[in-house]
Amino acid sequence: MESKHSRMAARECRWFIADDEDEQVDDTLRSCVNCAYRRWLQEGYHCVHPQKQLEQAKAD
């Protein structure tokens, strides 16, 4: 997992909401891996915020 990338992406994400403290894995709070909308995958994580999903679908 790339912490630097996760932190940079979360800084610019308007949907970031901190997950429960016991679910956070990065020492830096504002990180995708600490977000309530993050879901773990074998190869990393995926954002499941409904608005972000809608915008991505429109872009495809």
Question: What does this protein look like?
Answer:
The chain has 60 residues and is of the alpha+beta class. Helices cover 33% and strands 13% of the residues. The protein has helices at 3-12, 50-59, and strands spanning 38-41, 44-47. The protein has a two-stranded antiparallel sheet with strand order 1-2. The radius of gyration is 11 Å and the shape is globular. The mean pLDDT is 91.
Question: Which short descriptors sum up this protein?
Answer:
2 helices, alpha+beta, 60 residues, 33% helix
Summarize this structure briefly.
This protein is an alpha+beta fold and about 60 residues long. It has helices at about 5-10, 50-60, and strands at about 40, 45.
Instruction: Give the averaged pLDDT, no decimals.
Output: 91
State the secondary-structure class. Answer: alpha+beta
Beta-strand content: 5-15%
Quaternary structure annotation: single chain
Span of the ends, CA to CA: 25 Å
Question: Share of helix among residues?
Answer: 25-40%
Which spans have pLDDT < 50 for at least 5 consecutive residues?
Answer: none
Sequence-ordered SSE layout with sheet pairings:
Blueprint: H1 3-12, E1 38-41, E2 44-47, H2 50-59
Antiparallel strand pairs: 1-2
